[in-house]
Amino acid sequence: MTDEPLRATVTQKAALFGPGGDVLLLRDGDDAWEFPGGRIGRDETVREGLLREVREETGLGVEVGPPVYTAAWLNDRGKGRFSVVYRCAADDRTVTLSDEHTDWVWEEPEAAIGDRLSTRQQRAALERALEAEVEAEVEP
């Protein structure tokens, strides 16, 4: 048993694929690229919270797919974080950016993994989201 459990803020993110297979990335105030998403509200289901966060940050309605990645860590201020990334899809590519972010881009997944995403956790989440797509296509 762990002597001191991780106390963490829980966030959920969307590895969000558009109609052409590109993934949506948002640039935060620190000039880093990330997936849309955020914290679950106290009275929300996981799905409701993710749909709300994506709509608030991008203006997009999305289809929420399966969770593809989880991670737990301490941030730069020593605060616990726990994140779940879901594979999501949008039929529209028209982004209305909130003031939480400074820019957005629809990027080919391979380029996002190689050039845009700055953390290994984000790269791993996108790789798993791509694998989940392939697995879904193979199932009968």
Notable traits:
Nucleoside Triphosphate Pyrophosphohydrolase, alpha+beta, three-stranded antiparallel sheet, 140 residues
Helical content, roughly?
25-40%
CATH class: Alpha Beta
Spatial sequence of strands, sheet with the most strands: 4-1-6-5
Q: How many domains is the backbone divided into?
A: 1
Query: What portion of the residues fall into strands of 2 or more residues?
Result: 25-35%
Runs with pLDDT <50, length 5+? none
Number of helices: 3
- Calculate Rg over CA atoms: 15 Å
Helices and strands: which structural class? alpha+beta
Report on the biggest sheet: 4 strands, mixed
Strand and helix map with partners:
Blueprint (H helix, E strand, L loop, with lengths): L7 E10 L5 E5 L5 E2 L2 E3 L6 H13 L4 E12 L5 E10 L13 E5 L1 H8 L3 H19 L2
Parallel strand pairs: 1-6
Antiparallel strand pairs: 1-4, 2-3, 2-7, 5-6
Helix pairs in contact: 2-3
Write up what this structure looks like.
The structure is a single chain. This protein is α+β, with helices and mostly antiparallel strands and 140 residues long. It has one domain: Nucleoside Triphosphate Pyrophosphohydrolase, CATH 3.90.79. It has helices at 46-58, 109-116, 120-138; strands spanning 8-17, 23-27, 33-34, 37-39, 63-74, 80-89, 103-107. The strands form two sheets. A four-stranded mixed β-sheet has the order 4-1-6-5, sandwiched between helices. The protein has a three-stranded antiparallel β-sheet with strand order 3-2-7. It is globular and about 50 Å long. The chain starts with 7 loop residues before the first strand and ends with a helix. The mean pLDDT is 91.
